[in-house]
Amino acid sequence: MTPSALPISLSLPVAWGEMDALGHVNNVVYFRYLECARVEFMRRCGMTELRTPDGIGVILQHVQCRFRRPIIFPDTVTITARVTSIESDRFTLDHEIISAARSAASPDGSPVVAAVGTSTIVTYDYTNRAKVPIPADLRRAIEALRA
Q1: For 112-120, what is the mean pLDDT?
Q2: Separation CA 39–CA 105 (nearest Å)
Q3: pTM over 0.90
């Protein structure tokens, strides 16, 4: 599936300051890229506030990233997110970080994935400090983006 066919696909320019002493984008920045995709996913689900008036929001339960290729300035990355599972109180997103510079240089022009990741997001009651079932309206929005 091409990045543009996924529910969430956003492009960001790589900043010079994201590189480290080893001459590539620092590993911690990849997690920020994944965060950008998660935030965009939640925005598209209608979550424009951190939590509802009754204290219900989301919290990141788990995130992982597997680094496949270094990203080097100048470049533009495309970060994707797609729902891979929905449970009663959480959902999981799979991510790809695609390098435009590496993709343009690939022999067949196919997308070059610099990293893959997974994020698990739990619905959380911040007032009572406990996880809660996904509210029905949020579940519908997540399922719509999954379809």
Answers
A1: 98
A2: 30
A3: yes
